[in-house]
Amino acid sequence: MSNEDEFFDAVTGLDSDESCEGGSESSFKDALADGGSQKNNGSVPQKNGMKKHRESLPAPMFSRNSVSIWSILKKCIGLELSKITMPIVFNEPLSFLQRMTEYMEHTYLINRACSLSDPMERMQTVAAFAVSAVASQWDRTGKPFNPLLGETYELIREEQGFRLISEQVSHHPPVSAFHAESLSGDFVFHGSIYPKLKFWGKSVEAEPKGTITLELLKHNEAYTWSNPYCCVHNIIMGKLWIEQRGKVEIVNYRTGDKCVLNFKPCGMFGKELHKVEGYIQDKSKKKHCIIYGKWTECLWSVDPQVYEAHKKLEKKGDKTLKNEENLGAENDDADDMPEVQETVSVIPGSTLLWRIDSRPPQSAMMYNFTNFAMSLNELDPGMEAVLAPTDSRFRPDIRAMENGNMNEASTEKERLEEKQRAARKERAKNDEEWSYKLGTNTHTGSQDWLYTGGYFSRNYQNLPEIY
C-alpha cells in the first residue's frame, strides 16, 4: 500500500515556520500592496491598510435546468461518488481545499474563546464555532472541485488574525489536510477531511470522515470533533435543499468537559428542520448548560433547569396542536422541502453564542456563496509571484467556470484529471511514492495528517507541474 492510501493523526504546537517571519511574510504583504494599485478582480485597498475583498464573482452561475441529472446518476445508486467522474454541471467554482477554508469565516469565535477564563464559557464558544463551520453550506447545492494530488491553498487574513495552508495529501482515498494558526500565536486549528459521497436515488449524502482539532495554546487545551452528515435532497427533481444531521461530540482533553450536539433530521412535518440541540457536561457528567438553535441561523445557551421548565410549559401547550396534526394528511415523501421554517424560539434567560452573517444580495446568482466564499478565489496580480504554483487559484478549470466559460472549464477539468491519472500510472510503473515538495504535511502513525512546517518559507523549487 502506498502512502497515498494512508492517513494519520497528531496534535501540534505553534512552533513551525519561524523562518517565515520577516522576509517571506513581508514579501507577501508587499506583493499585495503592489497588486492593489492594479486591476484585481474587485479587491481594493482601504485607507486603514486592510484590503476590501470582492463581493461578487466575474460571472453569474449557469442554469442547470437543461441538464438531465437522472441520465447521469441512475447507474450510481449506492456507489461512492468520489470514485466516479462527475460532469461539471454539479460543481461550484471552488476547490474542496477552498471550501474547507470556510471553517475560518467566524474566526472571531476562536479569538473570543482564547480570551475567556472560564472553561465552560470556552466550551460554549467552541461549540458555536463548530456549528458556524457548517453554516456556509446552507443552500450550497454545488459540489466543489476535487483537489488534485499535491494541490495547495493558502489564505492569510490579517483582519481576522490567521493564516492557513491546506493540501491534498492523498488521491485514493481522497484526503484533504488543513492547518490554520493565529498570527498572534493564540491558537492552532487543523484537521484532515476525507468525505464519502453516496447517491441514494433522490438524495446525495456526504459522510464527514476525519477529525478536526482546535488548540487554545494559552489555556493548553485541545478540542476535537467531526462534522455532522450532510444530505442534499431532490437531486432528480424539485427544489434542492440541504439537511445537516447526526451527533457531534466536542471533547476538551485537558478538563474532560464534553459538548454533545444533535443536528436533528427534518422530521415528517419539518418541525425539526435545521435544528441543533445539545448540552455541555463536565468530567463527572454534570450538565452545566443546554445548547439550542439552528445551524442556519443562530445558537443559544441556557441553564438546564430553565430549559426543562420551559419544555414542560411547551408540552402542555402542544397537546392540542399534536391532535390537529394527526388529523392532517401525512407527508409520504421525506425528500419534499418542508414548508415549516419558523425562526428559533428564544427561551427567556438565554445567552446568544453566535448568529449567522447575512449573505450578499446577489448570492442566489452566485452559487449561494457567502461574502467570505466570494473572496476565496480572487487573484490579485501581486500575488501571482508569491503563491505556490500548486495553489487552487491557478486551476484553469475553476477559473474558467468562475468566468462563465463552461465549455472551457469542462475541457480543462477532463485534461487535469487525465494528467493526474497518467502521473499516477508513471509513479506506479517506476515504483515511486508521492513526495511532498513543500514539506507541508506528513503522517505520524495515528489517524490524521500533521502540518510539519515549511510552506511559508516559500521555497517552491522542484515542485511538480500539476496544472
From TrEMBL:
Assigned GO CC terms: cytosol; perinuclear endoplasmic reticulum; plasma membrane
Pfam family, any one: Oxysterol_BP
Transmembrane portions of the chain: none
GO molecular function, one term: cholesterol binding
Annotated segments matching region Disordered: 1-54, 406-429
Start-end of Basic and acidic residues biased regions: 410-429
Polar residues biased stretches: 37-46
Keyword vocabulary terms for this entry: Lipid transport, Lipid-binding, Transport
GO terms under biological process: lipid transport
Family: Belongs to the OSBP family.
Protein name: Oxysterol-binding protein
